[in-house]
Write a structure and sequence with these properties.
This protein is an alpha/beta fold. It is built from 13 helices and 20 strands.
Length: 426
């Protein structure tokens, strides 16, 4: 069972059932297209058990796929299309039974970019979706799909208006092109309930690769600093902000070249903690094998240098480690917290040495990816309990009482394999 998901009045966060809601998403773009209902249930149950509460998936990803092509979009009464949509219905209902929200993309952005979906046929498809899912409380609409808004504003504004008219309370966001945010095109759109950005899959030194998917805006220069997107969008207004596509676990750094190193569980932890401690309303995790549901026996070729079957990848360490962040945030008054770089004594550090801090009157959460020594100003927390947490295991150190104005973190000699650390006060 799920409660209606809402945005919190006056705060850039979500609520459900009258309580703050921390978005912990997983990336499952091809869920409807590639999985049987039995496999879909196994995947969804795995995610629910790991603490995820939002699944991002595309209803129609390719016109040429086995879901029936353009009949799915425009001839929904044909038997093959009916079977596909009934399959989608059942998967969405299974997710609700498991306590999961479905952030549904009506289509992948390529179908808008190539003109298959356009202003001439948006009404028919939009009204079909609005009518079919108007009573599903676990549906969130996510427009876009790895696409810039430039030149497509009319289409997405129209689609959003149709979906909102059927159910004004249904939340709508926009999944943008890499190294972009929905705020670049839809910051003033009345239908947009939350901002989503795609920090992408590149290292700092890959920011300006000159590749086919480069884009020209200041955000494209943020590199791995996904916290900067949060900062940018928080300054643009009071909507919640989500990193809807950071670097996936098990994908090549830079995305396209499998000879490059692959992003690991430790890397995905960094993206998660950096964005959330900067004030994001949650975070979306992703894995290369899962987002495309790659199966070597499935009869389709994998993309982006994928190396594992999705059935194996669902239990890779990064996914299981997201729960520790969610549990930490849910135990404190996170909706009244703020990014607190000023508490890093000696000034904030750059790139991988950043010391991320989210602080409130009664708590402080601090994350260091490098695990190098640093000092925090903790005078406002004197007398409170301080613990260290290993973000890879969720294990805590023995608590100590803060008795001075500063706390010096010094890494243990055994912390070289996973040196990142979380300081928890409160």
């Amino acid at each position: 069972m799920v409660h209606k998901l809402e945005t919190m009045q006056g705060k850039p966060y979500f609520s459900a059932g009258g309580k703050p809601f921390f978005w912990l998403g997983d990336t499952a773009w091809l869920l409807f297209t590639r999985l049987s209902e039995q496999d879909a249930y196994a995947y969804l149950k795995n995610r629910s058990e790991k603490g995820f509460n939002v699944i991002q998936a595309t209803l129609v990803h390719y016109l040429s796929d086995k879901n029936g092509g353009d009949a799915v979009l425009f001839k929904q009464d044909e038997p093959e299309a009916q079977r596909y949509w009934e399959h989608c219905d059942r998967v969405i209902d299974m997710a609700a039974e498991l306590g999961l929200y479905m952030a549904l993309l009506p289509s992948w952005g390529s179908l808008v970019r190539d003109g298959s979906l356009n202003i001439g046929n948006v009404d028919k498809y939009g009204r079909f979706l609005a009518d079919r899912y108007k009573d599903r409380d676990n549906v969130i609409w996510l427009l876009g799909g790895d696409i810039k808004g430039d030149g497509h504003e009319e289409y997405y504004n129209r689609l959003a208006s149709i979906l909102k008219s059927a159910n004004p309370d249904r939340l709508i966001g926009y999944h943008p092109f890499g190294r972009c945010s929905s705020s670049l095109w839809f910051n003033d759109a009345p239908w947009l309930d939350f901002h989503m950005f795609q920090s992408g899959h590149r290292r700092y030194d890959q920011c300006s690769m000159g590749a086919w998917d480069d884009t020209a805006n200041i955000m494209s220069l943020y590199g791995e600093d996904n916290w900067r997107y949060v900062q940018h969008d928080r300054e643009a207004g009071s909507r919640p902000v989500i990193d809807g596509e950071p670097s996936y676990e098990g994908i090549p750094q830079g995305l396209h070249d499998p000879t490059q190193p692959y992003w690991t569980a430790r890397d995905v932890r960094r993206y998660a903690y950096w964005s959330v401690l900067a004030g994001a309303a949650g975070h979306t995790y992703g894995h290369n094998a899962i987002m495309q549901f790659y199966d070597p026996a499935g009869g389709y070729k994998g993309a982006y240098g994928v190396r594992e079957c999705w059935r194996e990848a669902v239990d890779h360490p990064g996914a299981g480690q997201m729960r520790w962040l969610k549990q930490l945030v849910e135990k404190v008054d996170f909706t009244n917290g703020h990014a607190a770089d000023e508490l890093v004594v000696g000034g904030q550090r750059e790139k991988h040495e950043r010391v991320a801090v989210l602080a409130g009157e009664s708590f402080l959460l601090c994350y260091s990816f490098s695990g190098k020594p640093f000092t925090l100003d903790v005078k406002q927390y004197r007398g409170m309990r301080l613990r260290l947490m290993d973000p890879a295991t969720g294990e805590f150190s023995r608590p100590e009482t803060i008795a001075s104005d500063s706390f010096d973190y010094v890494p243990a000699a055994s912390s070289s394999e996973n040196p990142d650390v979380v300081v928890v006060i409160g």
